[in-house]
Amino acid sequence: MSDLKFRGYAVKDTNKWTEFDVVDFEPMGVRDDTVDIEVEFCGICGSDVHTLTGGWGAPHLPLVSGHEIAGTVRSVGAGVKEFKQGDRVIVGAQIDACGKCRQCQDDNENYCPKQVDTYNAEAWDGKITQGGYSTAVRAPQKFVFKVPDNVDLADAAPMACAGLTVYGPMHRFGVKKGTKMGVAGLGGLGHFAVLFGAALGAEVVVYTHQEDKVADAYKMGAADVVLTSEKDWDKKHSMSLNFLISTIDVSKAIPIPELASQLYVNGVLHLCAMPDDPIPPFQTQQLAANGCSISVNHVGSKVEAEAMLKLASEKNVKTWKEVIPMKDVGKGVQGVKNNEVRYRYVLKQDLA
Amino acid sequence: MSDLKFRGYAVKDTNKWTEFDVVDFEPMGVRDDTVDIEVEFCGICGSDVHTLTGGWGAPHLPLVSGHEIAGTVRSVGAGVKEFKQGDRVIVGAQIDACGKCRQCQDDNENYCPKQVDTYNAEAWDGKITQGGYSTAVRAPQKFVFKVPDNVDLADAAPMACAGLTVYGPMHRFGVKKGTKMGVAGLGGLGHFAVLFGAALGAEVVVYTHQEDKVADAYKMGAADVVLTSEKDWDKKHSMSLNFLISTIDVSKAIPIPELASQLYVNGVLHLCAMPDDPIPPFQTQQLAANGCSISVNHVGSKVEAEAMLKLASEKNVKTWKEVIPMKDVGKGVQGVKNNEVRYRYVLKQDLA
Q: How many CB pairs under 8 A join A and B?
């Protein structure tokens, strides 16, 4: 046991979701497999905004959100072999699972029906989990990922959720050299999809409606950028992509038939984001020209997280981020909501 | 050139879609690669009803529909090596393609952008294609499939569309022994999915709301049948299927989230039918519990058609059908619309 204090920036009212107060909280109880981590950085995820505004339903209040957590291990449970004090680690959007079901046994723990979210969920002992806009988190070792020496903790923090959420499906689909991959929406998730896609050697085509992001997309490694505000934007790469990740987070802004039309036969349109509303209705006929699929995912598994961090280390992937003091979290969540961030806010510890 | 007459049962008004008159028609012009086929049987497909009623838009009238065609080759073009007079063959829903594009070159001719439907479409010479409720059809050899000796022509006819439409995706997904496969909706398509699934050695679970079909499903080879009219029908096989084919042809009757919930991690919900309306809107969150996909297809390729017919021959697959005289086609289409058919009407030639 360390002498870590658990304190964080909490929202107390979803109508005042940019107002944060510092509160003390009790983390999940210690187990043989838990790791206590001193938080150094925490990214701000779109999920935090969905949760704090009540878009995904009424949260437990007061709530400390944040699930792109990077820090240093301070103490470990009796059964922890994987980590030791001083290790540099990240924790993402999922913090626990049953460990026993078919999914947990075959490296699909991110689909365990008893999965526990990193904040706003009931932990194994009934406590409500609290996130990384805080001094410290306690996490079972299965959901803690070691950061390679040459990867900065501030870069690694947003990889824990935004990075893994796009890398997971890319890994399962088998993106590699020779894959023609699309990325629709160039925000926090989308920018990681471009970075990782390029790092894997794929030919990446970015779709954005924001002209001011075009130059950035090329710098991140895109082979081509399509401005969806232009007429006939869906013609140039029609029926040619193998895989297209949409990270567009507003339902009505997802042009399902047009995105699907970019895919070659049996290609996959993968929807990473989880908007507040249903996706626009479509007819099966509209997907029949190429027999494509629409797929979704829930973050990624530990196997995928470790593969992602290895790629980031080997290919020197750098997160495009703005580091701000943790006390400015209110401005940060507002900036995410307003789509002002380029491309991820990372909060730096100031409570310790 | 044979002395075949091209005459068929045609609808002249979508408001009178059960009234058929015998008309003469001109088929597509002869090419080096065309085959003239004397029609012996033609299945009635749900597509015929969608087209004749105007559900898929206003058709060219008068229209001879029918794209589950079985018959005997009477003559072949100068370049045809694959067929000779007297061969027993079938023709399905697609009758031509460009032969040159990437899709045509890699056995995805069913996704050629210049694909030509067997009826109600513009042929290479501008003629409107007419279907198999008729004495004869002319088809390029690429879209003619040879029927194995031990398969009856009346059984083979509905395989040309209903069979191939479900077998195609099963083939691409790799259904085999060890696959746990669902079939939702036990009509013409669904019954083939059960028959072929069982023939491939898969464990087939049928979902139907019709109690009077349960015994049939078991006889077709289902391992289990779930009555979707019962409470909590989606609990028993929750999160366990690898692949689920929905053949439900009415949009609002497709319970997307409940069907998706039957799938194990990364399973595929495949929508074979093409209802008149968009599928019910859903949230990506509703598919996130297992990270599944929703996919569609447009019939199947020749490679798949030949694999299907080989399977039918080797495993002695028998179509469940009601053979009726071709002149009763009006009662037939009404019976399909009313969901009275068990499980396919096959029209027997009476015009020749």
A: 100
Structure ipTM over 0.85, yes or no:
yes
Q: Quote the CA–CA distance of B182 and B226 in Å, as a whole number.
A: 10
CB atoms B172 and A108 under 8 Å = no
Interface test with A, best of B265, B299, B303 (most A CBs within 10 A): B265
Residue of A104, A111, A244, A248 to mutate when probing chain B, most B C-beta within 10 A: A111
| Nearest chain B alpha carbon to A113 | B289
**pLDDT value at position B2?**
66
Q: Pick from A103, A290, A296: which is nearest to B284 by CB?
A: A296
Residue A227 has pLDDT above 60, yes or no: yes
* Contact at CB, B278 and A275, closer than 8 angstroms: no
**Residue reference for tokens 């959720």:** A161
B173, two tokens: 């997904």
The secondary structure of B172-238 as a DSSP string is HHT--TT-EEEEE--SHHHHHHHHHHHHTT-EEEEEES-GGGHHHHHHHT-SEEEETTSTTTTSTTT
Predicted confidence (pLDDT) at residue B1 exceeds the cutoff of 60: no
Residues of A in contact with B293 (CB under 8 A): 268, 293-296
Q: How far apart are CA A159 and CA A68, in angstroms?
A: 7
From B238, which residue of chain A is nearest by alpha-carbon distance? Answer: A113
User: With 90 as the cut, is the pLDDT of residue B280 above it?
Assistant: no
* Residues of chain A contacting residue B273, judged by C-beta atoms under 8 Å apart: 284
Interface test with A, best of B259, B269, B293 (most A CBs within 10 A): B293
Q: Quote the tokens at residue A278.
A: 């249903």
Q: Are A281 and B281 in contact (CB under 8 A)?
A: yes
Residue reference for tokens 């908007």: A275
**A278 in contact with chain B, both atoms CB, cutoff 8 A:** yes
Q: Report how far residue B155's alpha carbon sits from residue B167's, in angstroms, rounded to the nearest whole number.
A: 15
Q: Please answer yes or no on whether B102 and A264 come within 8 Å at the CB atom.
A: yes
Closest-CA residue to B133 (of B75, B62, B85): B62
The CB density around residue A229, as the number of other CB atoms within 10 Å, is 10
Mean pLDDT score, A119-127: 98
Mean pLDDT of B84-109: 98
Please report the domains of chain A, with CATH numbers, ordered by start residue.
7-161+319-348 (3.90.180.10), 162-296 (3.40.50.720)
Question: Measured between CA atoms, how close is A150 to chain B, in angstroms?
Answer: 32
Whose tokens are 């396919």? That residue is: B344
| Band of pLDDT at residue A35, cut at 50, 70 and 90 | very high
The answer for B 76-105 residues in CB contact with A (under 8 A) is 102-103
DSSP, residue by residue, A269-316: EEE----SSPPPP--GGGGTTTT-EEEE--S--HHHHHHHHHHHHHTT
Query: CB of B193 within 8 A of CB of B182?
Result: no
SS3 A215: helix
> In this prediction, what percent of chain A has a pLDDT beyond 90?
92
